[in-house]
Structures are given as structure tokens and as C-alpha cells.
Amino acid sequence: MAPAPHVEPPQRLVRSLGADSPWLAELPELVRESMTRWDLTVERVVAPGGRGSLVLLVRRADGAPAALKLCAAGAGAEAAALARWDGHGAVRLLDAAPETGALLLERLHAEISLRSLPEAKANLEAVSALRRLWVPPAPPGAAHPFTTVAEHTARAVDRIREHIPKEARPLAGEALELRSALLADATEELLLHGDFRQGAVLSADPGRAHWLAIGPEPLVGERAYDLARLVRDRLHDLGATSGAASLTRRRVRKLADSLEVDRDRLRGWCLYRAVESASRQIAAGNRADGEMLLEFAGWL
Questions:
Q1: Res 209 pLDDT > 90
Q2: Whole-angstrom distance between the N-terminal and C-terminal Cα of the chain?
Q3: Where residue 7 falls among pLDDT bands split at 50, 70, 90?
């Protein structure tokens, strides 16, 4: 095994966590631990990377390529979801040390996501990947470790009420009412990706499905919740077109029909998730992004 290299975290990660993040200070040691545990040689850091994790391209002892992902917030749920999917529709988990937030993954083409395709083709491939991900969260009779959509969304209720601006309070109220109604009569309990979008689906090597999902934030709930994030993909491009509202509603219809999801339930979760994301952006000081998300919610 080669000596542990100096690892420079990408600026996106530094900005997201803060330059004084204790986790960033621990990164060199976390890299060394993972290199020792799995006998790895580091090639390079993937940039710009994510906002909550560092990904390095590595080689295993036999020379096989892999990717090492170190997660700032822990990796237990992600590891469990990837193990459950076992490479079907998602990147394959080779090994994991959840206690240190480390995942050893098959290497995909980090520079080629569905966002490199025209929108219609990208959505077609996204739908294909999602079909493979929506499975029961555990074998029959077994318990699962995942948070439910009800539990996850409950954590955002106070933030929505506090941070959505006064002029958008009616929209926030509608979002919260929709959440309650959708949860009250939900009938599905499937394993969801949780953050499924075009940028989270990467190209794979020959012999595998061409497109595989990465970076799940797994939840258990209904398909419409998972699909809702995809509806607002390429949001700034959508906002720059004429007739954005009608195009948005058309997206809802097409994506719902392609996956046999109820249109009204998809529209409801789209609106809720846009408002929830807007509250998070505004709370973080990203008011322009928050306002764009509220505008999207209004189109619905």
C-alpha cells in the first residue's frame, strides 16, 4: 500500500461544512484508516464533489478500480440501502465501515451523469433506474433500519413555518396540508432513494446497467415522494422558458404516467418538497434559490 496522500477537499465541500469543520480536520486520518483497512491506493479526489462527503478514486490491492466515499454525517443508512439494492439500479457496495462513514464502491464515471443527456432522454433513463430501486425495504418478516417519509418530513414542519416569507405563507400552508393528507392515506412502503435527480445517476462500465444511481438518502414511503424531486430537475433552465407553469404541469403528467403514479399525489409531493427545500435554502441564507423554489411550487 502506498503512503497516504495529501487530500485537498473540494471547495464545494468546504463551503458547505465550513472551513472550521471538525470532520474536515479529521479527513487525513479517515483516509489513512480506509487505505489500511481495504489496502487501497488513492489516485485522485473527485471534484467538484458533493456537499456532505468526499469521494476519492482508488485502486484495490489487485489493481481493480473502486471509489472511496467518506460521509460527514455517517453512512449507515446509505450502506444499508446499497446493500439492499445489491447493484440493481444503483452503484454496487463493495464494503463498508459505517462507524467511520466510509463506503467502498464500484467505480462509475463521475463526470458523466444523466444531466449530460437531452432532457427527454435523461428522464427516460431516470425512469428506468427508479423502477429498479423501488423494492420492499427488507425481506418478508424482517425489520428495516430506514427513516420513513412521515418521520423525515415531520422534522421540517417548524422550519417551513419559521422561514417561508410572509408573502408565501398561503403556499406554505397548502404544502403542510398536502403533507398531512398524503400521509394519512398512503398505501405504499417501498425503499426510496430520497434525493433522486439526474445528477445522481452516473454512467457505468459495459456489463452493468448503463445508468446507476448514487448518493441515496434512503427513506421508506410511496413512489410519488421519490419522483417529486425529479420533476423539478434543471429548474433554472425551466424558469428561463416561456410557459414554465404549463411545462411543469406537463412534466408531472408525463412522469406520473410513465411510472403509473397517481398524478395528484405526485403534484402534492412536488409542491411540498419544493416548499420544504425553499425553507432550507432561505434558512441557510440562499434566498435567491429559495425564491426560485417557491416560484416552482406556485406553478403547480
A1: no
A2: 54
A3: confident
Q: Catalytic residue among 195, 205, 262, 289, which?
A: 195
Place of cell 434543471: 234
pTM for the model: 0.94
The amino acid at 34: S
Longest dimension (CA), the chain: 60
Residue type, 274: A
The predicted pLDDT at position 220 comes to: 98
Q: For position 4, what pLDDT does the model report?
A: 61
Q: What is the per-residue pLDDT for 90?
A: 97
Which residue ranges form the domains of the chain, and what is each CATH number? 11-107 (3.30.200.20), 113-299 (3.90.1200.10)
The answer to whether the Cα torsion of 231, 233, 238, 240 is positive or negative is positive
The residues that bridge with 58 in the sheet, in sequence order, are 42, 66
- What average pLDDT does this structure show over 91-112? 96
Rg (CA), the chain: 20
* Spatial separation of the C-alpha atoms in residues 112 and 100, rounded to whole Å: 28
State the SS3 of the chain. Answer: CCCCCCCCCCHHHHHHHCCCCHHHHHHHHHHHHHHHHHCCEEEEECCCCCCCEEEEEEECCCCCEEEEEEECCCCHHHHHHHHHHCCCCECCEEEEEHHHCEEEECCCEEEEEHHHCCHHHHHHHHHHHHHHHCCCCCCCCCCCCCEEHHHHHHCCHHHHHHHCCHHHHHHHHHHHHHHHHHHHCCCCCEEECCCCCHHHEEECCCCCCCEEECCCCCEEECHHHHHHHHHCCCHHHHHCCCCHHHHHHHHHHHHHHHCCCCHHHHHHHHHHHHHHHHHHHHHCCCHHHHHHHHHHHHHC
20 annotated active-site = no
Q: pLDDT by residue (tens digit) across 230-270?
A: 999 999 999 898 899 999 999 999 999 999 999 999 999 99
